[in-house]
Amino acid sequence: MSDSTTLDMEAGEKDAPAVREGDPQPGRLRWVVQPALALLAIAACFAYTNTRELTSKQSLLQNDAMLSGGFRHLWLTAVAALLVIAISVPLGVALTRGPLRRHAGVILAFAGFGQAAPAVGLVVLAALYFGVGIWPFIGALTLYGILPVVANVVAGLNGVDQRLVEAGRGMGMSAFAVLRKVELPIAVPVMLTGVRTALVLMCGTAAFGGFVGAGGLGALINTGIKLGEQPLLLVGAVLIASLALLLDWIARVVEVVATPKGL
Amino acid sequence: MNFFEFVQDRWSLLWFQGYQHLSLVVQSLVIATLIAVVVAVLTYRSPLWSGLAEAGAAVGLTIPSFALFGLLIAFITSGVVLSVVALAFYGALPIVRNAVVGLRGVDPGLVESARGMGMNRFAILTRLQLPMAWPIILTGVRVSAQMLMGIAAIAAYASGPGLGSFIFSGLSRIGGANATNSAWAGILGVVVLAIVLDLVLNAVGRLTTSRGIRA
């Protein structure tokens, strides 16, 4: 078992420079400091907006407007994340077996250049082709989040010790059973790192929702720029950044909890 | 007007904005590399400080770029200065980690023998440690470059320079003539520049890697 663990970690580390992510094992301090900082910043925003007189230009800073914007932001990110997982895991599995296996590297390299396309461009294109509104926007978010997850699903599955796969087959398990009971569970930590990267990326990209009528906290920044209202800019930026930090933390917790005990 | 006609028609503007985009990214990247290397040199010997620097970099990367632009607009009025500040900030983050790892990876035996040869700390750093760590630092620079290319597209929204202006003009003319062409031109321009810059950085890596450790 220890063999497979080291292989897994190598797979994760080999990808580290290519994938946008921080230290894989954050210090103990960060488990507490990061969510505390984020919650404190959110609380500070509400304290700030509730202790000052809001002008008519600042109606987005009313409590219910901020709450609904925040929940819309989270909802957009969550729906896109679920879609990303639903698409990426089968795609990653397909890329690690059969005829596609040999071409996986080339396909991912091409997809990597596609990832250089600016996120805001995808959002705008989706609105141009499919109209403004929520679903085209979620489509763009999903497309943007797929690559980091697929790349990590492939890395995770490729990192599984082949001897374990053969042992499973030798025990009479079908190829599908080996995939489900051996390969996928072992690949879970690496896959979840990709999901976390995608979550943070998409939470940031969701800020463009204000451009295409999909709502979310980005509307605060858009309106702030248009009207030259600094409070809107500040609160919008701080809230979005805090949500991203919270999501990152939640995803880290899930990573720890969901890692199979044997690893 | 189809896409190719559009590109032909706007070629000079596209070329100019592309040049501005590249120049913005490259200049920010140089500043980012300098900052990151200085931070790494100052912290890599202490696990506490380098841990803090790396954690700070990881947290920084989770801050959405649009949020940072929004925050900076409140304080900086010049679109160009604002864009450089934001891009240099993001650009430094991936490089810090690689620079720390690279500097730590230098064989202590080599440092010891350099000291034995009478080199002082500065000479050891500039003539031994940084050249040894350079390939790893450069990997971080390349990751940064790809990321900055995309982030720089947002600069146009904060009245900064670059190809983002094509994307945003597509957005503001949804349903109008050439809106789709304009957005595609901006996006493809960014992707092409990202590929070109990556190739250039790859070549720079070959030329600037010390001969002794060149693969």
TrEMBL record, chain B:
PROSITE patterns: ABC_TM1. Residues 18-205 form the ABC transmembrane type-1 domain. Gene3D superfamilies: MetI-like. It is found in: Cell membrane; Membrane. Its main location: membrane. Keywords: Membrane, Transmembrane, Transmembrane helix, Transport. The chain crosses the membrane at residues 20-44, 65-93, 148-171, 183-204. InterPro entries: ABC_transp_perm/SBD (IPR051204), MetI-like (IPR000515), MetI-like_sf (IPR035906). It is a multi-pass membrane protein. PANTHER family: GLYCINE BETAINE/L-PROLINE TRANSPORT SYSTEM PERMEASE PROTEIN PROW (PTHR30177), OSMOPROTECTANT IMPORT PERMEASE PROTEIN OSMW (PTHR30177:SF4). Belongs to the binding-protein-dependent transport system permease family. This is ABC transporter permease. It comes from Nocardioides hwasunensis. The lineage of its organism: Bacteria, Bacillati, Actinomycetota, Actinomycetes, Propionibacteriales.
